[in-house]
Amino acid sequence: MDVMTKVPVREQEAEKRAKNFEEVCYGYSAEEAMAEAARCINCKNKPCVGGCPVAIDIPAFIAQVKEGNFAEAFNIISKSSALPAVCGRVCPQETQCEGKCIRGIKGDPVSIGKLERFVADWARENGIKPEPAKEKNGYKVAVIGSGPSGLTCAGDLAKMGYDVTIFEALHEPGGVLVYGIPEFRLPKAAVVKKEIENVTALGVKIETNVVVGKSVTIDSLIEDEGFDAVFIGSGAGLPKFMGIPGENSNGVFSANEYLTRSNLMKAYEDGSNTPIMAGRKVAVVGGGNVAMDAARTALRLGAETHIVYRRSEEELPARVEEVHHAKEEGIIFDLLTNPTEILADENGWVCGMKCVKMELGEPDESGRRRPVVIPDSEYTMEVDVVVMSLGTSPNPLISSTTEGLETNKWKCIVADEANGKTTKEGVYAGGDAVTGAATVILAMGAGKAAAQGIDEYIKSHK
Amino acid sequence: MLYLTGFIYYTPPYPGVRERTDNNVYNILKVESLTDSIYLMDVEAPRVAKTCLPGQFVIVRDSEDGERIPLTICDYSREKGTITIVFQVVGAATEMMSSLKTGDSFTDFVGPLGCPSELVNEDIDTLKNKKILFVAGGVGTAPVYPQVKWLHEQGVSADVIIGGRTKDLIILEEQMKAVAGNLYITTDDGSYGSKGVVTNEIQKLVDAGNQYDVCIAIGPMIMMKFVCKLTKELEIPTVVSLNPIMVDGTGMCGACRVTVGDEVKFACVDGPEFDGHKVNFDEAMKRQQIYKTAEGRAYLAAKEGATHHGGCGNCGGDK
Question: What is the phi-psi region of residue B66: left when phi exceeds 0, alpha when psi lies from -120 to 50, beta otherwise?
Fold first, then answer.
C-alpha cells in the first residue's frame, strides 16, 4: 500500500443518494481503520492536537486504533470530546487537525476525522458509555441550549461532579445537530440521539420546552431555582433575509425554516405531519455549509436545485467536501450571481427570481475580493422555491431579558474566550451565541473552556 | 390561532432523550366542547402558568410525531399551574387533538411565547380613563377573554363585540359577560344577537355616540382586515393579534414574517399583536395559504383512507 495515500472511504453512490436521505458516507471498517491508523508516524510535535479546538490526544488514540484496541481509543477521545461520532462527521478537519498533519506535507494527511468517527461508532455499537463522576459535589449548574456547546459544557461539568440541568427551547434536544444538519450527513436516531444519551448517562438532566427569556429568566434560575452558575449556549438562531422586493412571497423560506421542517419535524418522510414545499426548481441563495445542506435536501425532495452565490467558487465558505458532494449529486452552481428581486404570480406564489451577474473587484474588509455588479447583466431565473441561506445571528430573547449581560453590536454575548465569563456574575457563555454562526467544534471548544471557567468560579466563590 | 395542519399518520416515533419532571408532564385536567368543532382544555403547565400574561401564546404537540401547533392562551391559573386553551378543528392535527380526553396529556407544551398585550404595561389610571372596544371573531373570542378579564381585575371595564357566522359558533358568552362592560353579539345569519358582521356593530356603536380610544380586534384575518379598514376611517387606533404559520415560535425560522408599515416583523417574537392600521393583510392572508393544498389532500386522504381514490381530483388516490 502507498503510505502517501489515505485509505479511501466508502460512500453511497451519488446517483442513488441524490434520491434518499440515508447517510452519504459509510465510514471505515475495522480493517480499513487499522490500515489508515498505521499511516500516522506518531511525530513528536503533534501539530494535529494544536489544530483541534478540544485538544483530543490524536496520536494516542490513533496508536490504539492501529493495535485494534478500539475501547481504549474511545476512552482517550472521551477525555476531551463528548460528541465524537458527531465531530468525526461534521468537523472541518481539513483546516484543523488534518490541515496540520505532517503526513499532509508530501501526501494525504491521516484521515483523523474518519478514524474518530470509526472509534465512536464502534463504541456505540458495542455499548460502551463514558463513566459518570463517582461523587457529586452538590453544586447546581444550568445550561441553556442543548446544542454542541451546551452538551459539551454539561458533560464536562457532570464529570467534575456538578448537578447539571440543560434547558432546551425545542421539543427535542440537540440544537443545530437535530434541526439544522440533515440526516444524510448526521443520522439523528442512530448517532445524535445516542451521543446525547452518553451525556445524560453522565447524570446530566435535560428539560425540553423551556424558552429562557420567556418561560424562565437567567435571574429566576439563579434566584428561584438555586443554580450556582449558568452557561448560555443558545446558538445563533435568527435567520437573515436579503431585504429585496418579493421576499415575503409564498415559496421563499429561510434555510432555518426549510431545514427545521425537514430535519426536526421529519417533513422529508412520507406521511409526516409537518409539510414542506418541495418545489420543482429551487434556488438556494448563499454558499455556506447550511446552503449546501438546504440544497442537498431540496434535491432529495425531487427538485432541480441551484446554488446562487455572489462570489466565485474559490470564496465559497462551505467545506470542500460538502461542495464536492453537492456537485456529485447534481446541484447546479450559479456563481457570481446575485438575486435582486423575487417575482410572484397574482396569488403570491414565487414564479421567478431576478438576478444580476457579478465580477470580483478589489478585496473587501473580509479579505475576499468584493463582488461588483456587471452592468446590464440582469436576467430572470424561473424558480418556484427560494431558500435564503445568508447566515444567522444570535437570538436576543436571553440578552434582552437579562440585566447586566453585555452584547456587542451584532447582538453577540460578550464573553472571555479563555473561560466563557460574561459581564454578569456567575453567568458564562460560549458557542454561536458569542461568536455568531461558526462550527460545531468551535462551539464545543467554547463549552469546554466555560466548564473550566465555571468550575474555577464556583470553587473560589462558594 | 389555528391554521390547517397536516396529515396524522403514525411513523415509528423518535422519542426524545429527556427528563420528565413535574414541570413537563402536560396533563389535561378538563375537556369541554364549546360547540361541535370548538374545544376548551385545561392543561397542567406550571412553568407557563407562572409567567404568562394576556396576549401570549403556547405551542403544543399531541404526539411524538405531531406538528407544532400555536394556540393563544385563553386563561391561566397561577395557583393551579394550569393554562386554558381553546381550539377549533380545522384540519387533521386539530381533529387528532380533539380526541384527547381528561387524563390524557400533551407531548409538548411550550410557552409563554410572544409579547404580552401592550395593555398590561400601561398605567392603570390611564387605562381607566380610556374607552376600550374589543372585537372578537369566532374562536378569536378565546384570546380576547384573558385581556378583558385582566382589565376587569384592574377595575377597567371594556366593551366587547363577539361575532360569529351563526349561533353555534358563539363561544364564551357567559364568561365574557361576567368581565366585560357592554357585550354585543352579532351573527352573519341573524340566528343570535344582531344580524350582520362585526363592522356593522362597530359603526352602530360609533353612530350612537360611543367614542372609543382604542380597539383590539382578534379573529379571522379577513375580519381583522375589515375592522381595521373601518377603524382607520373612524380614526380609532386598532391592535390586532396575528396567527400566521409558525414552526418554532422563538424567532428561529421566519415562517411567520409579516409586513407592518415598511418593516418585516416576526409575529412570534415581535408580536403577535401589531398596529392593525399598518399590517399588510393581503400579504398575510396569502402567506396563510402556503400549505393549504398539501394539507387539504393529506386531510382528505386521512379522513377517507382507503375509500379515497383520487376523488379530490388532485392526489391520484392512495399514492
Answer: beta
